Amino acid sequence: MNASCQTSGKPTLKLLLAAPRGFCAGVDRAIDIVELALERYGAPVYVRHEIVHNRFVVDSLKAKGAVFVEELDEVPDGAAVIFSAHGVPKSVPADATSRGLDWLDATCPLVSKVHRQAERQIEAGRHILFIGHHGHPEVIGTLGQVPAGTITLIETVADVAALQFSGDAALAFLTQTTLSVDDTAEVVAALRARFPQIVGPKAEDICYATSNRQAAVKTIAPQCQLVLVIGAPNSSNSLRLVEVAERCGAASRLIQRASEIQADWLDGVEVMGLTAGASAPEELVNEVIDRISLFREVTMEQVVTAEEKMVFKLPRQLVE
Ligand code: SF4
After folding, report:
1. Is 71 a catalytic residue?
2. Which helix (H) or strand (E) holds 302?
3. Which residue's CA is the closest to the ligand 1 atom numbered 6?
4. pTM score
5. How far is the CA of 31 from the centre of ligand 1 (A)?
6. Quick one: which atom of ligand 1 is closest to the CA of 25?
7. Taking CA atoms, which of 105, 123, 200, 320 is between 20 and 30 Å from 284?
8. What is the CA(208)–ligand 1 centre distance, in A?
C-alpha cells in the first residue's frame, strides 16, 4: 500500500491554511452598516455598487432586503442608500444630498484616509500621481476627490517612465489600498528615482489587511504545489493573492465557490495552501475544506503570520 494512503482509500493532502485570511475590518463594518440600516429603515435599503466584492455576501444581503444598484438615479426619491466600502467620488454624496436621499457611507476608513491625503496634497499645490488599477471602484472614488487635471493614474514602472512632468515639478504620490506590496514598492522606487522631490506617505497606503494576507501567502506558498484563493474576479486584493502565490512558485487558482473545484486539480498535489480575500467569508473556506475532503484525506495546519485586532467605528447615524 502506498504510504500516502490511509484506511479511507483516499490519498492524503496536507492543507496549509493562511492566517490572516478573509474578512477585514473594513468589510465587517460595511456589512454591519447594511444590516443595521435594514433594521433602522426597514427593507428595501439601496446599496450603490456591490457593498464588497463577493457574490455570496451580496446575495445574503439581497435576501435580507438590500437592493444593489450601480448609480444613484436607480434609487427612488425618499429611499435610504449606502455607498460601498470602496468609496465614491465626491459628486455622489453631493448628488444624494441634493436629491434629499438619506445616505450612509460604508467607505472603509482606510480608503477615506487616502481621500483626505489627496485633498491635502492639492491644497499644498502638488499634482498627485495615484498608483492604482484603472477602472477599480476605489480608484474612481479617489480620483473623484480632487479636481480633474490635478491627479494622474499610473499602474506600472513603464507608466512612470512615460510621465511628462519636469524633473522639479511639485508632485505627490498616493496608492490604492489593495495593491501588490512588491509591485507598488517598485513603482514608488521608480517615482523617487525620477522625481527625488516627490512627497508621499511614509509607508504606501496599502492597507494592513492586504499586506497581511499577502505576507501569509508568501509564507505558505513555497511549500505548496497549489494555492487556492477564495475571492471574486473583480476583487483586487484577491487577485493579488493569486499573483503572490504564483511568484512563490505554486500554481494558484481564484475560486468563488467550492463547487468549482475539480478532483483533477489535486493531481500531483501533496501540500495545498488555502486563503481568502478580504471580502470572502469564512463559510466559504469551510465549504472548500469540505469539498477537498471528498477527494483527499486532509490533514490541516493553520499558519499564522499576524494577529489582526482592527475594528472600525460605525457611522454615527446608526449608533445614536
Ligand atoms: Fe479597508 Fe483594506 Fe479591507 Fe479594503 S481591504 S476594506 S482598505 S481594510
Report:
1. no
2. strand 297-304
3. 26
4. 0.95
5. 13
6. 8
7. 105
8. 8
